[in-house]
Design brief:
The chain is of the alpha+beta class. Helices cover 31% and strands 31% of the residues.
């Protein structure tokens, strides 16, 4: 049987297309549209562990180019953001979803909800037993969003990492287990 890592790497457009959003693995054709999307809200990057503005974008791109777990969100034919699978662990049959960013124009429109539904469905269909979210403790918007869909708060990793600004970040850990997925899916489908 194929590993969780392999099954997630093999995801195609059919598994990652919803009524309003299509997720595509990052490819060179997305570069400039994603750069522009990331530049639409320059102030938000202070709450991320990394920046995707200017030269920071280029360094990030060089590091993740060809990574099939970085997914670009397409809405109404335009690149509006991205999200990623990471910390894929075959032994634990778990993954994390994060590195999520959306342009201000689509925040609050349901795009993030649909992206989460598509990514969670694909992860659980691929055999994940657990999906985690790691959110900066000061990022109230993201914390409320995952709580609203039914993710369970597990605790805080104190002084978990140093961000690109030099700030020491506390990370909140949330999870959704496979047996919780049907209830979460129902929330995401409404």
């Amino acid at each position: 049987m194929a590993s969780l890592r392999h099954r997630l790497e093999s995801l195609g457009a059919s598994e990652l297309t919803g009524p309003a959003v299509r997720l595509e693995p990052l490819v060179p054709a997305h570069r400039e549209a994603l750069r522009a999307a990331c530049a639409a809200d320059p102030n938000i990057w202070d709450i991320y562990p990394y920046s995707l503005l200017g030269a920071h974008f280029d360094a990030w791109w060089d590091r993740v180019a060809g990574n099939r777990w970085v997914l670009v969100a397409i809405h109404d034919g335009a690149v509006v953001g991205m999200s990623s699978y990471y910390d894929i662990d075959d032994a634990k049959t778990s993954t994390a979803i994060g590195g999520t960013y959306f342009t201000p124009a689509v925040r609050g429109t349901g795009v993030n909800k649909e992206v989460k539904r598509l990514m969670l469905a694909a992860a659980f269909d691929a055999g994940a037993r657990r999906v985690e979210f790691h959110i900066d403790a000061i990022n109230g918007r993201s914390r409320r969003a995952v709580e609203k869909i039914g993710a369970v708060f597990e605790g805080i990793l104190r002084q978990d990492r140093v961000t690109w600004t030099g700030r020491v970040r506390d990370t909140c850990v949330y999870s959704i287990l496979k047996d919780e997925w049907p209830a979460v899916r129902a929330i995401l489908e409404n």
